[in-house]
Amino acid sequence: MNQPKARIAIIGGGPAGLAAALAALGAGVQVVVFERLPRVGTKLAATGGGRGNVAHVGDEQAFADAFGRRGRFAIPAWRALGGADGLRRKLARLGVETVVDGEGRVYPASMHAEDVRAAMEGAIRREGGEVQCAARVETLERTPQGDWLVDGTRFVAVVLAAGGQSAPELGSDGSGFALARQLGHRVVAPVPGLAPLLLEEPWLSTHSGTSVDNARLRLRAGHRTVEVRGAVLATHFGLSGPAALAISGAVAREWTRTAGAPDVRLELGLVPGPLDWEELRRSHGAQSLRQLLAAWMPKKLAVGLLEHCGCPGDQPVARLDRAQRDRLERALTAEPLHLRGIAPFAQSMVTCGGVDLKEVAPDTLASRLVPALFLAGEVLDLDAPSGGWNLLWAFASGVLAGRSAAQAIGGGQTS
Ligand SMILES: Cc1cc2nc3c(=O)[nH]c(=O)nc-3n(C[C@H](O)[C@H](O)[C@H](O)COP(=O)(O)OP(=O)(O)OC[C@H]3O[C@@H](n4cnc5c(N)ncnc54)[C@H](O)[C@@H]3O)c2cc1C
Q1: Count of domains in the chain?
Q2: How many angstroms does the Cα of residue 394 sit away from the middle of ligand 1?
């Protein structure tokens, strides 16, 4: 067996693993990246519909806020990378220029996520890093001397960056969680996030393809309320669009926790807030209900919603009776939606849940349980809405974990 050298095994060649490899190489430490698919970064190349929304601009607080209650954990990683600006500088050094859209989302200027993937892999190989593809790591063993054995080779440290469980055809099949469990880590039950909502609502599914920009989704489960505002898109299976995707993780968590009990309630508002019916009667009294609703949503959806409520579309607003007004108010601001399950991991973009953050040091991403083990990316229990936050976390945590692993085994300069 080879004598141990200052070598780090990186499990997973996604954005977190590739960033970790470059950070460790930059500190003068040899790395081997183990990737189960025939090539690294398959999911990275597919992100943002192939365009790669690789980051979101903003300060560290905005970054932490995107990850909710546990967001503070991610701040040291954000600092290690220097946020979206730091990532943009690093990518520019690899020959990938980036652009920022009006919403603060960062993309490669070429609009090809593949360019980011190829540039990172190329840089690792140029700097002498080893990339082993079609190499699925099944076990991580520690020798009595305190080294690691990965695929029969000794390493001094391991970075676990095997992702979550979403979109398994793109790589992450949950084996990162299995490896973490084998080593004694607790894994917060994984559920699909950034996935469509599966609903029993014919009035939505028959108008699939229609969307509303300023909608509101509210989840009530026991004492917990989660509210998300943004665009929703009616589909043949329920709802998609940024707001539906953003609330889907919370829905899946509650659905799983309560085994689909009726305690989980989901409401949809298609108008920005409560309606002043007296004012509407004065200003729009002569209009039909169909015309009134068409100000907030596509005509097709307005017709479907009115049929769903049992209100005639051609009825003038001024002639609404009390019961109709109450029914419409509810339909427009807090219509109950009936969940028929949660989408499978194959349809989700991120995994909510993962290795318990309490067992990992935020300043180094070192395991608090296992020596010389570092964790990065989606394998950890952190996830954010769409917009580039998840990839920014993957890159940032990869840099911090790779750098910390290199320093822990005596690596010098930082990249
Ligand atoms: C279709 C789609 C589009 C997305 N678009 C965006 C976007 O535009 N912006 C954004 O911010 N986020 C986006 N995301 C989310 C983002 O891609 C992930 O959060 C991010 O890739 C996580 O990075 P990671 O390196 O932790 O894990 P992954 O990218 O999942 O990489 C993990 C790697 O580890 C490998 N692996 C797993 N187990 C093993 C093992 N046992 N041995 C060896 N290798 C293993 C996998 O094959 C994989 O290559 C998208 C996700 C999907 C599915």
Answers
A1: 2
A2: 8
